[in-house]
Amino acid sequence: MSLRMNTTAPAAAAAVGASGRGTRRGRTRLIVAGSLLTGAVLAVVLPLLVVGGTTESAVTGSALLGFAIGWAMLALLSTRLTDQPQRWAWVPAAALGGTGLGLMLAAPDDPGLTAASWVWPPLLLALAVWIGMRVRRSMSAGRWLLYPVVVVMAVASVGGAAETVGLAADQHTYAMPGRLYDVGGHRLHLDCTGSGGPTVVLMSGLGGSSAGWARIAPAVADTTRVCAYDRAGQGWSDAAAPQNGVAAAADLHTLLARAGEHGPYVLVGHSIGGDYAMTYADRYPEQVAGMVLLDTTSPYRTAAGTMHAGSLGPFALLPSVARLGVGRLFPTSTWSALPDPEASRFAAFVTSPRGLQNILDEMGSMPALLDEAQRLSSLGSTPLVVLTAAGHASDTVWNAAQDRMAALSTNSSHRQGDADHGGLLDERSGAQQSADAITDVVRAVRGGMTLAPR
């Protein structure tokens, strides 16, 4: 009896010890998983719900704070609830939290963020390597949950470095045609070619730039003078605070005057560029000799059908994600059907953090823009061509809005294109139809002709 007790007691104690270690390991794994999940969720929720996706610095800063909270949870809970305290986790918590808070308070603009991108990728890579070493040395349970995080951090640092180098290379590869003109606090890009009158002014849509008119501008320049320009934040123009249509119209009016261009002009707008053109015509009617609306976004839609600053959702994360070089993973043909090098130039703008931030700003301003565009009630007998994309041929609501825009002038023509929305600019046949529409309006202005209502 005594011998049996002496042999079984150590075994029981060992079993209890093993059970305790298993419980502690399970608790450690739970803490690691919960901390990582909390950090990841907060990194998404804070930018979308708390910050509201206003600027790239605010979005990135709040996301880093979310990740920092996750690391802080790991350090705190592992110290209090396990026998494997991971106090080293306070280091990434402090590094990410301090950086995030600094971004939110300092609110650097795109040039500032781009300059900082020469610094943070190597620091992030060093932090990832250091974390990997600490995990290997100090954790026996849950380490395999943290290794993927280390890999993601390393990949992000490499992607950030590649994007920074790519942005610098783009500045040298895609030399700016035309000139920059100060319009009051920021500069706008204008590129004019050809001669004769009336001068045609090309106005890009959402996410567009003057580079997107590469097929159309040369064709129109054979007939008259044509100017492609970039709104604030687009293409080669400086960024500015988000603008409504009235502010953009004032910018364009100042730009043309300071560039020495003479009106009245033929305004050509693609997509929401047409709404900017309509707003300009309402504000400066004496400066408009003709108009071409290329599959213009309906200004008559309800506010419920448009984006606004508080409804951008996951789109608000795009500039911050682009800072990691994600946009460069897609082929140029994804963004444009233009021939190279024009397609690469266009893609460089639209996939950059700055270009994506401009898209978000204009999406947020769209309700105000559409309200302003629909204030244009009449163009009188000003020559007007409305060209609708083939993709909307069966859309009765869209076509009704296009008809309504065509009715703004008693001298108008509503035409159906055979290209899709973007193809009216970047596909060969669609661009030719757009150029023909512009040329028809130019000739109507010159000769006082009546446009065929086809």
Topology:
Elements (H helix, E strand, L loop, with lengths): L1 H50 L4 H26 L8 H17 L3 H7 L3 H19 L4 H31 L5 E4 L4 E7 L6 E4 L12 H6 L4 E5 L14 H14 L6 E6 L1 H12 L4 E7 L23 H5 L19 H9 L2 H21 L10 E5 L7 H11 L5 E5 L6 H4 L1 H20 L7
Parallel strand pairs: 3-4, 3-5, 5-6, 6-7, 7-8
Antiparallel strand pairs: 1-2, 2-4
Helix pairs in contact: 1-2, 2-3, 5-6, 8-9, 9-12
Describe the structure.
The chain has 454 residues and is an alpha/beta fold. The protein has helices at 2-51, 56-81, 90-106, 110-116, 120-138, 143-173, 216-221, 245-258, 272-283, 318-322, 342-350, 353-373, 396-406, 423-426, 428-447; strands at residues 179-182, 187-193, 200-203, 226-230, 265-270, 288-294, 384-388, 412-416. The protein has an 8-stranded mixed β-sheet with strand order 1-2-4-3-5-6-7-8, with helices on both faces. Strand 7, helix 13 (396-406) and strand 8 (412-416) form a beta-alpha-beta unit. It is elongated and about 90 Å long. Mean pLDDT is 89; it is low at 1-5 and 7-22.
Helices and strands, in order, run as HHHHHHEEEHEHEHEHHHEHEHH
Rg result? 29 Å
Oligomer: single chain
Overall mean confidence score, pLDDT: 89
Strand order of the largest sheet: 1-2-4-3-5-6-7-8
**What profile does the largest beta sheet have?**
8 strands, mixed
Total of DSSP H or I helical runs spanning 4+ residues? 15
As residue ranges, the low-confidence spans are: 1-5, 7-22
Q: Terminal Cα separation, in Å?
A: 109 Å
For the secondary structure, the number of strands is: 8
- Helix/strand-derived category reads alpha/beta
Shape: elongated
Strand portion, in percent? 5-15%
